[in-house]
């Protein structure tokens, strides 16, 4: 199968320059946590903007100073293996596809996983991926704002949530943070005062400048209000191929590995499963 067959020509994007309020509104509306950033009026690729990038610089209004520019792109004539190699070089969900330096579409992890799986059937079991599978977790009564700080400080895209009895109850990721937040616009007045004096005269003037800002406020409600409760589960005895089929069927990015009916022993993301195919590149 050629790369062109899995390119999404219709994708969510944002023009630069733009302000963060527009980016967050676009993410909330489309239930995504990453946007492809293009130069205004063109299809020229500038980078990828994530909600984590925005939250890490809460005072920065201009997206051009926030977005992630060191992101690989792939030519439309590239191979499936080329795309796999680029996905494994970082930790992102979208891979922009270019032609003559213009973005013509994107490929997502969701697009490439079943194609790679069909081409390279791997007999590995999930148990072989668990040893290096670590994740951060929080109490399900933790304020969502605090949970976001944990995600930013430890540079993770999701958290496992547990109740007071230690039972795993769901997953909170960056898209849930967007849903929990609220954009509040306000106008502030800035004063500038100047005075000069001379032998025969002096004068003063005062100027007021109105500055409009939009701030994104995360909820202080418990993460329990926003976590993904309908998570998909697998066992460590399942094969990689079986796991990919579940990801596709349930349309999810996360799989909870359960043992003895309700004991959580790990959480796998789509990119974690893609790493099982390192051997083919």
TrEMBL record:
Hydrolase as UniProt keyword: no
InterPro entries: CBS_dom, CBS_dom_sf, CBS_domain-containing
Record flagged with keyword Hydrolase: no
PROSITE patterns: CBS
SMART domains, A to Z: CBS
GO molecular function: IMP dehydrogenase activity
Gene3D superfamilies with a match to the protein in the record: CBS-domain
Residues annotated as domain CBS: 67-122, 226-281
SUPFAM superfamilies assigned to the protein according to its UniProt record, in alphabetical order: CBS-domain pair
UniProt-listed Enzyme Commission number(s): 1.1.1.205
Keyword terms: CBS domain, Oxidoreductase, Repeat
Classification via PANTHER family: CBS DOMAIN-CONTAINING PROTEIN CBSX2, CHLOROPLASTIC, ZINC METALLOPROTEASE MJ0392
Official protein name in the record: Inosine-5'-monophosphate dehydrogenase
Organism from which the protein derives: Candidatus Methanofastidiosum methylothiophilum
């Amino acid at each position: 199968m050629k790369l062109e067959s899995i390119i999404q020509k219709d994708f969510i994007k944002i023009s630069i320059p733009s302000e963060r309020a527009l980016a967050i509104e676009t993410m909330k509306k489309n239930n995504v946590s990453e946007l492809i950033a293009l130069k205004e009026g063109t299809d020229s690729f500038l980078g990828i903007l994530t909600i984590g990038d925005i939250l890490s610089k809460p005072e920065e209004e201009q997206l051009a100073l926030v977005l992630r520019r060191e992101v690989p792109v792939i030519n439309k004539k590239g191979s499936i293996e080329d795309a796999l190699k680029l996905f494994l070089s970082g930790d992102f969900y979208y891979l922009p596809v270019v032609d003559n330096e213009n973005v013509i579409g994107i490929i997502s992890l969701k697009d490439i996983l079943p194609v790679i799986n069909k081409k390279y059937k791997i007999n590995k079991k999930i148990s072989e991926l668990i040893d290096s599978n670590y994740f951060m977790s929080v109490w399900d009564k933790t304020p969502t704002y605090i949970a976001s700080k944990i995600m930013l400080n430890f540079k993770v895209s999701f958290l496992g949530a547990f109740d007071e009895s230690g039972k795993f109850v769901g997953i909170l990721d960056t898209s849930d943070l967007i849903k929990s937040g609220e954009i509040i616009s306000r106008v502030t007045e800035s004063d500038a005062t100047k005075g000069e004096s001379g032998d025969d005269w002096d004068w003063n003037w005062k100027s007021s400048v109105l500055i409009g800002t939009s701030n994104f406020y995360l909820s202080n409600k418990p993460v329990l209000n926003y976590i993904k409760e309908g998570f998909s589960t697998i066992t460590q005895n399942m094969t990689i191929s079986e796991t990919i089929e579940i990801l596709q069927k349930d349309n999810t990015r996360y799989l909870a590995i359960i043992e003895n009916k309700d004991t959580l022993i790990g959480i796998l993301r789509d990119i974690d499963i893609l790493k099982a195919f390192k051997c083919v590149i």
